[in-house]
Amino acid sequence: MSQVLVNGLFLGCLFAVVAVGLTLVYGVMEVPNFAHAGVIVLAAYATWAAGDAGAPFALAALAGIACGAVVSVLTEVLAYRWVVDKPAASPAVALGLLLILQNTALRGYGGAGRSLDTPYDTVLFRIGPVTLPGVKVALVLLAVLSLAALHLLLSRTSLGRAMRAVAQDREAAAMLGVPIRRQYTLAFLIAGLLGGVAAIAYAPTFQVSPYMADDVLLSAFVVVVLGGLGSVRGAVTGALVLGVAESLGSAYVSSAYQSAFGFLLLVLVLVRWPSGLRSTDARRVA
Amino acid sequence: MPASSTARHAAALGPVAAVSVLAHVLLIGFQGEAGQLTLLAVSWTIALTGLNFVQGIAGYPSLAQASFFGGGAYLSAILLDHGLPAALAAALAVGGTMLAGLVVGLVFSRTRGQYFAIGTMFFTAVTTLVFTNAADWTGGPDGRPVGLGFPLDTTLLLLAGSLGLGLAAFHLLAGTRFGARLRAVREDEDLAQHLGVPTARVKLVAIVVSAGFGAWAGVLFAQYNGVVAPSQFTFVQSFLMFVAIGIGGAGRLFAPLVGSVLVLGLTQLVNFGPGVSQIVLGAVFIAVTLVAPHGVLGVLGALWDRIRTKAVTA
């Protein structure tokens, strides 16, 4: 039981890092960023490629995170920026970008999965009946550190304040002199960094492949809906709830249907609250 | 019926009949890879005609169409295995899938835009999980054979006939109050609701109709193809169907046809190497969304209007 809960915690941390990137972008720009999966995939491949070329792991990981940030910002500059006034078009653009990014990875590296080796692969902690593989501990550490950094950025800096202002009311923020365009780019930059962190955190436990992030992205979207589109704190809470729910479901019902339990949760929530747990009218990034 | 409306119907239904006949000729004429491609194009067009109600007219981004398509294909295959007559198996498969569509509709038709896209996408992901894992019925990841329900000639006739009848039904339904209500949902859902349009119910009906079209297309596809596998009905396929409607021109009569020919042509016919055709497709799709929100047919229609007005004024 405690092992199942710990596994749920691992999953929850992963979902949180991905979901916060999604919800931040949604909060600021109202884009359902399906292309985030592509960002994660490319970041994972960048890490793998750098490691393969002989770079030490820490350097390769930094390369991966940087790659995630660059790709994410590029999607904003080249595509999303142009549909900000047409919300109906944004799911379409997001899906188009996802096709492009995933297939770039497929073109560059082929469809075969590759394993990402880390220096902490073989580390194994034991606390009573619970075993903690090093990769998963690293995942939790990375998640907590990056989310704490994000929290500080959003709550303590003027950049964060500007971003929250844009998320609350775009027009009012613009009138008060907040540079809107820069907030868009910044949101995608942060989302990309988090995507890179997610990639290096969980690629070692799965495999690096063009479709590695699909399931995680779906779960992360459930999290975002659970927590309310645009709410960072809601995303973290929702991620932990979903992680534990999926982990319980896969342990006690069927592991093949793990992500279906997330769907069940999503259905239950949407039947009761069609616009998510938090109304988007009271949207905020904090 | 006033003459102008008769003329309008004739102008739409004439080409529909022609396309239907052409589809039959191509289905009979082509063998091997070309035949496969024609089959895909015809069955996609039938399925996408249903999607054209939800995504096209009502403007709701539905990513569930591939799972309805797969639902029809798998259900009919399973029922045929149990010795049911072909017509009954097909009817039950379509009915069962429409029931699934009803459930999807009941849950998600109250949600708006982004939530709807996320919910339907997740639904497709779950059906793919079922297709892959319920190996006793579906044969698992490698798929399963489909028993022959109809003779091949009949299947070809049904494919071509359903293509024409489906498009005709779309044309006629789009002109009814149902079509007008869907358009009202697209234009301004809150306003429509206040003016007394039962928006949730209209969306629900549209989703169930789209499930019916998708399932019937799946039944015919399975019959002709002889094998069904999960990879034919994943949410990537749902994306591609969504893309097809967008490229064709959402809500336009021939968008399913133009969209599926373009998408399938680009992904199956042109071989740039792995992935490249989908990169091109993604770029084309984004470009169409940004530059020509009414799709290829919208651009052609605008060009045609310009030529005509020039001819009149000259």
Overview of this protein structure:
The complex is a heterodimer of chains A (286) and B (314). Helices cover 70% and strands 3% of the residues of chain A. Chain A has 11 helices and 2 strands, in the order H-H-H-H-E-E-H-H-H-H-H-H-H. A two-stranded antiparallel sheet of chain A has the order 1-2. In chain A, helix 1 packs across helix 9, helix 6 (158-168) crosses helix 8 and helix 9 crosses helix 10. Residues 279-284 of chain A have low confidence and may be disordered. Chain B has 314 residues and is mostly helical. Chain B has one domain. Chain B contains 14 helices and 2 strands; from the N terminus they run H-H-H-H-H-H-E-H-H-H-H-E-H-H-H-H. The longest helix of chain B has 27 residues, at 3-29. The radius of gyration of chain B is 19 Å and the shape is globular. The two termini of chain B are 34 Å apart. The A-B interface holds A 26, 30, 32, 79, 82-83, 86-89, 91-93, 95-100, 102-107, 110-111, 210, 214-215, 218, 221-222, 224-225, 229, 254, 256-257, 259-260, 262-263, 266-267, 270-271, 274-276 and B 59, 61, 107-108, 110-115, 117-119, 121-123, 125-126, 129, 132-133, 235, 239, 242-243, 246, 273-276, 278-279, 281-283, 285-286, 289-290, 293. Chain B: The chain crosses the membrane at residues 12-30, 36-54, 86-108, 115-135, 155-174, 204-222, 228-247, 254-273, 279-304.
- Give helix % range of chain A: 55-70%
- What name does the CATH topology of chain A carry? ABC transporter involved in vitamin B12 uptake, BtuC
| Unreliable stretches of chain B | none
Mean pLDDT of chain A: 85
Number of DSSP strands of chain B? 2
The biggest beta sheet of chain A is recorded as:
2 strands, antiparallel
Q: Biggest sheet of chain A, strands in spatial order?
A: 1-2
Q: Helix proportion of residues of chain B, in percent?
A: over 70%
Number of helices of chain B: 14
Q: Report the radius of gyration of chain A as a whole number of Å.
A: 18 Å
> H/E series of chain A, N to C?
HHHHEEHHHHHHH
Give the overall form of chain A. Answer: globular
CATH level-two architecture of chain A:
Orthogonal Bundle
Q: Using CB atoms under 8 Å apart, which protein chain pair has the greatest interface?
A: A-B, 50 and 40 residues
**So what's the overall shape of chain B?**
globular
Instruction: State the low-pLDDT regions of chain A, or none.
Output: 279-284
CATH class identity of chain A = Mainly Alpha
What gap, in angstroms, lies between the N and C termini of chain A?
A: 33 Å
Number of extended strands of chain A: 2
- Main sheet: strand order of chain B: 1-2
Main location (chain A): membrane
Keywords (chain A): Amino-acid transport, Cell membrane, Membrane, Transmembrane, Transmembrane helix, Transport
Subcellular location (chain A): Cell membrane
Membrane topology (chain A): Multi-pass membrane protein
